[in-house]
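STRUCTURE:
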C-alpha cells in the first residue's frame, strides 16, 4: 500500500475481473435458456383426461357418501304425533328419535320449544320448521290426560324422590334432560344422598332458576341418605365424602383412638378443625 491508498497487484486485478465476469454469466444463464427454450404447454391425451374425470367423480362420491343426508317431511305434521320411525325417516338415529319423544312427553307447542331439543340437528330443524303445526296447549293437555271438556280437573303432581329416583324417573320431571339427570345421580352418589333441595345447586351447571322450575316436582326423604359410621370408618372412607377434607378425616380418627369410641356426634365439636358450621353440614351424613 502507498500513501495514496490501497494498491492492487496486476495479478489481483486480473482475478477480480474474471470473478465479476463469471458472476455476470451465471446471472444471465437462466434468462438465455428461457429465451432459447420457451416452455411448451403440457399436452394431455384424451385417455388421461378421462382418468382425471373418474378420479374427481370418485372423490366427490366419497364425500357425499360420508355426509349425513336428511329429508324433508312428506307433509305438514304435528311433532307431538310423530313416532320413532317418523323421526328416523327424517334422518335421525334411533337414539336421537327416542330422546325427542322423551323431551316431548309433556307436549310441543311451538317451533321455539322444538328448537331447544338439542338432539335435533340444525339441518333437520331447518327442513321441518315450515311444515310443523301445533295443537292448542290446553286442549292438548286435556286430550293426553283424558279429561272431559266440560269437567274441571287439576293435573296430579307426581313427586319424585331424588334420593331413590332412577335416570328414567328423573327424566320424567319437566325441565330435567339427560345431562342434568346424569349429573344429579353423580352428585347423589358422592354425597350419599341429598338432605335438602338446595343441595341441587351443587350439581354442575344447576342454577337457582332450574331449581325453582322443578322444586314442586321433587321431594327429599332424609332417611334414604347413606351415612358413615365415625366409630369404624377409616381416614380414606371419611375423606371420600365431598364435605370432609383430609385433615378433618384424620382429626376424627385420631380423636376416636384417644377416647376409644365416640358416644355422641357432638363429641366431634371438641376438634379445633370442626367448626359449628362444618359440623352442621356433615352431621346428617354421620352416625355412631
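SEQUENCE:
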Amino acid at each position: 500500500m502507498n500513501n495514496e491508498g490501497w494498491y492492487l497487484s496486476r495479478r489481483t486485478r486480473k482475478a477480480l475481473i474474471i470473478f465479476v465476469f463469471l458472476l455476470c454469466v451465471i446471472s444471465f444463464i437462466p434468462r438465455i435458456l428461457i429465451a432459447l427454450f420457451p416452455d411448451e404447454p403440457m399436452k394431455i391425451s384424451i385417455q388421461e383426461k378421462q382418468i382425471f374425470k373418474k378420479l374427481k367423480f370418485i372423490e366427490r362420491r366419497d364425500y357425499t357418501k360420508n355426509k349425513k343426508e336428511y329429508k324433508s317431511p312428506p307433509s305438514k305434521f304435528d311433532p307431538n304425533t310423530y313416532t320413532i320411525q317418523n323421526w328416523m325417516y327424517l334422518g335421525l338415529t334411533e337414539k336421537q328419535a327416542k330422546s325427542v319423544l322423551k323431551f316431548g312427553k309433556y307436549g310441543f307447542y311451538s317451533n321455539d320449544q322444538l328448537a331447544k331439543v338439542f338432539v335435533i340437528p340444525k339441518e333437520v330443524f331447518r327442513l321441518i320448521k315450515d311444515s310443523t303445526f301445533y295443537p292448542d296447549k290446553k286442549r292438548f293437555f286435556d286430550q293426553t290426560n283424558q279429561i272431559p271438556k266440560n269437567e274441571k280437573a287439576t293435573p296430579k303432581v307426581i313427586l319424585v324422590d331424588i334420593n331413590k329416583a332412577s335416570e328414567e324417573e328423573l327424566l320424567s320431571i319437566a325441565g330435567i334432560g339427560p345431562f342434568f339427570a346424569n349429573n344429579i345421580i353423580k352428585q347423589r352418589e358422592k354425597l350419599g344422598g341429598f338432605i335438602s333441595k338446595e343441595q341441587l345447586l351443587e350439581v354442575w351447571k344447576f342454577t337457582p332458576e332450574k331449581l325453582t322450575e322443578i322444586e314442586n316436582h321433587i321431594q327429599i326423604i332424609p332417611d334414604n341418605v347413606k351415612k358413615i359410621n365415625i366409630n369404624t370408618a377409616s381416614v380414606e372412607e371419611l375423606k371420600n365424602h365431598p364435605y370432609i377434607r383430609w385433615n378433618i378425616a384424620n382429626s376424627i380418627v385420631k380423636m376416636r383412638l384417644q377416647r376409644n369410641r365416640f358416644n355422641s356426634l357432638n363429641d366431634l365439636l371438641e376438634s379445633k378443625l370442626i367448626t359449628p358450621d362444618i359440623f352442621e353440614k356433615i352431621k346428617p351424613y354421620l352416625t355412631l
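REMARK: The first helix runs from residue 10 to 36.
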